# Entry
Amino acid sequence: MVIGAGSVGTTYIYALLSTGLAAEIALIDIDRKRVEGEIMDLSHGLPFIPPVIIRPGDYADCADANLIVVTAGAKQASSQSRTELIQKNADIIRTITDEISKTDSDAVLVMVTNPVDALTQLALKELNWPSRRVIGSGTVLDSARFRYMLSRHCSIDARNVHAYILGEHGDSEVAAWSMAHIAGAPIHQYCAICRRCDWKKHHRKIAEQVRDSAYHIIDYKGSTYYGIGLSLVRISGAVLRNEHSVLTVSTLLKGQYDIDDICLSLPCVIGEQGVEQVITSPLSAGEHAALKRSAEAIRTVWGSLRG
# Structure
């Protein structure tokens, strides 16, 4: 089930189709004509992909859905931070969760709408589901951007770079350099081996490029959707195939790193029931402090919600 027929929701469906992960995909949006048009366009490609049913949906379909992905919401403007979106999008999410609540669904819900951490917590509060089943797309895309930037810098296939962005999907996100490695070697050791450069001279610039990527893309082309669409396919695969994959989704913390009762991103084991485990690897003192500041930034946004 996909709720929201905008560029993110439809790009996600397009990317999902070729994987064979889903037997049936239902799409909901308040603009019914948009839904019909998107489904017609997507359906014309069905002869080229594994069999799948794509159809307009309604909230009753949530009752037997395995996965609900919420992309509905207002777009982020080029001069606007993710947190400035919150009140308008919070009202949209309350409407959506109210409809889902009527269906007695046992699906995993993935929140994508920004600001994703606060809205993941809002969805969890409104639905009153177990926290493992309500997750945000979090920093899965940010971590992919981090891996890409490091791969380009080190001339290594991005699939062989392991690195994580923690905390907020936003300006206070934390690049966990102490957890970054290539071929089992911590990034600082790998760079000493390859001797192409001193990574410490570049790590701040790389982290800033990761953090500001969305702003640049929005400024250049109006919105981001390809990267997040593929990120959502990765999360979907972890849930639908019960992969036990490690992904930096946004989840409700319960004392990890001395942070409690706020949703933010840490490496989590993801399976068919959502979050199976939150992984707390050792962080440097500076990273730990930055993560706590990130949590407080999210808590401020969360506290600003009305109603």
Notes: The longest helix spans residues 203-221. The chain has a mean pLDDT of 93.
